[in-house]
Every structure is written in structure tokens, then in C-alpha cells.
Input
Amino acid sequence: MEKKMLVVAIAIATILISTLLQLFMRDRKTTPATKKMLWASFVAGIVVLGAVSIVILTR
Output
């Protein structure tokens, strides 16, 4: 039960951080290259979140 709550907490924190980063970057002048990099980092964050969740749940 504790593992599932930890995974949920990590997921919520990741969503909040990515949302704040998206809002922060939207206020700045973004070039197409910056937008690509922003989306790449967002996808990488999702992949890392999935990997951490799998590791925590399988232990």
C-alpha cells in the first residue's frame, strides 16, 4: 500500500512540476527549437516517471 502511495505522490509531483515549467516557458519568448527541446524534456520526464514507478512497484 505504501509503495502505491509513493508512486502516486511522485506522479502528482511530476505533473505539477511539468505544468509549472510549461507555464514559465510560455511566458518567455520561445523559438521552435526551444519548443522542441521543451517537449523532448517533457517526454523524457514521463519515461523516467514510468521507469521509477515500475521499479518501486516491483520491489
Remarks:
- DSSP finds two helices and no strands in the chain.
- The two ends are 12 Å apart (CA to CA).
- The helical segments are 2-27, 32-58.
- The chain has one domain: 2-58.
